[in-house]
User: Which sequence fits this backbone?
């Protein structure tokens, strides 16, 4: 008897938490298909509250066709910055990680300690001088400001070192005996062996860039060069908030990411657990 | 991803920072040791010792491999860090273009600045509430879905899904949900005959609204960390406890909790670090209001630096805050270190 009560309680909790987790996302997607008036109309519990009555794509048309706020441009900006940072980051971080994990050179421990020490530097502290540096370089309102400071991610180097450490040194020595140079060994042996790790790190980097908010808010002032997250937040500060448009914008910027995330979450979870629990 | 991460970059970087500072967690040092000892073994056997030019070539290649990362790190992290320290000792306002040495002037002024002290209080209040509540919820979820059963994959995915919603977007959605007149939350509360809650314009409860939003987004992330920790506990310990007649609660208290201590330490430390730095939801939902009730430290720094353009004062605030976070992390590490290793 008590066993079946426990069973029911367990399932009730599982379902309740699932509803709480999903509901805001569901609400966002549904609101994006409502007309402007409808969002404010249904203030009682009922069917109209949970499903749009007059389905419409007008919000989506509006955000893409508004010349003052070029939504397609924001998407493209964010996508290109994220892709460049991810690609450059994977290459440069993997190179450093390979060196630390497999090669022998003087001052290795000291250099590694220096790299890792940067992890305790809080972003809030360096944000101000970084901004001043961008101003001095003339990079304000330029994608260079969004890309270059973000490429090196010491956490990523740290993670890759752990993966690379499993590659046997004998294989590298054998390739060396056969006359391969180190860059070739890196490209032909090490990188292919670390593909799962690179996918993991790539997803984490891409998501971080896609989500970045504070730094673009600070260094990008020109409307049409803004990234998606800041652009969406600027929809709200306008007079007469148009929730339908905002929800369409948030839906477009989240749903593709959510879909990819569901497909690749295994790798993402691997990254999280690698960083913390293996010890 | 995260624990309530204040900026997209922080969560995992703090993770690694902690990972490298938790005793025994640094497998990097381990691998460096391993290769160093392998090196020593090689040189002990002269016949197998690689030639000097071979070694020189390897060292040269190694440094070239590191160079790009090192250069970027030096320009964009280390140099700004030193400059931040320098700026914090100056009166440096971008608007009035004044720049003069201030000594500890900025720091002294901060300690009697009500706005700064209030922002510290708000950050701590946020952290003190989020830390236990979020940890308990996430651990509970991890325990609920740890065992395999039909549909477990579905629940794992669903609980983890909010992690992929960007913080800015989560904040935007909740702003609509919290709306007093047509927000979902109040319609449901009214429908159930409960009093309405106005998180966005009632200073007494505005921070709670932000707390709920942050827990919604972060619980799946922490849950995954706990799941990994739970899976590291060997089954035979539970079986042994079962044979000895321990009930589920006793097994949780005497087996799970002690063996989960390292994971728990990790979760507590990263949650604290990230919670203290909360910014994005504040900027988007309330901009620090109503009546300054949700202005946190990072919000104070942002306003001071980029609205008032008072760089020196903001840099000093950032440093003061950094020292505080560092001290708290040190205390937490010390507290957890006293536990028995297993």
Assistant:
């Amino acid at each position: 008897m008590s066993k079946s009560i426990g069973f029911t309680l367990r399932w009730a909790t599982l379902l309740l938490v699932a509803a709480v987790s999903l509901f805001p996302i569901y609400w966002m997607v549904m609101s994006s298909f409502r007309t402007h008036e409808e969002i404010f109309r249904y203030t009682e519990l009922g069917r109209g509250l949970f499903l749009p009555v007059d389905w419409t794509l007008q919000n989506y048309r509006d955000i893409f066709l508004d010349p003052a706020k070029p939504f397609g441009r924001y998407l493209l900006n964010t996508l290109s910055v994220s892709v460049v940072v991810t690609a450059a980051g994977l290459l440069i971080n993997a190179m450093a990680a390979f060196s630390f994990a497999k090669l022998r050179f003087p001052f290795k421990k000291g250099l590694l300690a220096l790299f890792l020490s940067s992890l305790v530097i809080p972003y809030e502290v360096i944000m101000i001088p970084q901004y001043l540096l961008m101003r001095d370089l003339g990079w304000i309102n330029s994608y260079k400001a969004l890309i270059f400071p973000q490429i090196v991610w010491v956490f990523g180097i740290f993670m890759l070192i752990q993966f690379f450490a499993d590659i046997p040194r004998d294989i590298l020595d054998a390739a060396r005996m056969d006359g391969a140079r180190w860059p070739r060994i890196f490209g032909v042996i090490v990188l292919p062996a670390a593909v799962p790790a690179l996918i993991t790190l790539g997803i984490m980097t891409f998501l971080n860039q896609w989500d970045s908010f504070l730094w673009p808010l600070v260094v990008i002032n020109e409307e049409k060069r803004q990234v998606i997250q800041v652009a969406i937040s600027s929809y709200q500060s306008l007079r007469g908030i148009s929730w339908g448009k905002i929800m369409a914008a948030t839906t477009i910027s989240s749903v593709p990411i959510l879909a990819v995330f569901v497909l690749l979450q295994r790798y993402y979870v691997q990254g999280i657990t690698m960083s913390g629990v293996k010890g | 991803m995260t624990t309530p991460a204040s900026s997209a970059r922080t969560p995992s970087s703090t993770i690694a920072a902690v990972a490298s500072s938790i005793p025994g967690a640094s497998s990097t040092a381990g691998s460096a040791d391993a290769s160093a000892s392998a090196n020593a073994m090689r040189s002990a056997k002269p016949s197998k010792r690689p030639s000097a030019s071979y070694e020189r070539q390897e060292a040269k290649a190694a440094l070239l491999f590191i160079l790009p990362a090192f250069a970027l790190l030096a320009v964009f992290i280390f140099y700004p860090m030193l400059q931040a320290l320098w700026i914090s000792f100056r009166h440096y306002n971008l608007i009035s273009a004044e720049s003069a040495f201030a000594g500890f002037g900025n720091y002294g002024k901060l300690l009697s600045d009500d706005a700064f002290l209030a922002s510290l209080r708000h950050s701590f209040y946020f952290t003190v509430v989020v830390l236990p509540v979020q940890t308990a919820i996430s651990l509970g979820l991890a325990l609920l879905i740890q065992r395999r059963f039909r549909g477990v994959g579905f629940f794992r995915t669903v609980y983890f899904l909010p992690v992929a919603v960007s913080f800015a977007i989560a904040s935007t959605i909740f702003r609509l949900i919290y709306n007093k007149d047509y927000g979902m939350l109040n319609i449901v509360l009214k429908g159930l005959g409960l009093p309405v809650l106005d998180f966005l314009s009632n200073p007494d409860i505005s921070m709670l609204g932000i707390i709920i939003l942050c827990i919604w987004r972060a619980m799946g992330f922490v849950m995954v960390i706990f799941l990994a920790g739970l899976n590291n506990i060997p089954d035979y310990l539970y079986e042994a406890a079962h044979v000895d007649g321990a009930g589920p609660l006793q097994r949780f208290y005497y087996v799970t909790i002690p063996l989960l201590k390292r994971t728990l330490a990790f979760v507590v430390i990263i949650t604290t670090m990230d919670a203290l730095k909360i910014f994005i939801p504040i900027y988007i939902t309330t901009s620090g209001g109503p009546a300054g009730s949700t202005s946190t430290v990072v919000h104070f720094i942002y306003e001071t630096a980029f609205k008032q353009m008072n760089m020196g004062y903001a840099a000093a605030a950032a440093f003061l805050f950094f020292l505080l976070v560092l001290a708290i992390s040190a205390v937490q590490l010390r507290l957890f270190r006293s536990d028995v290793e297993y």
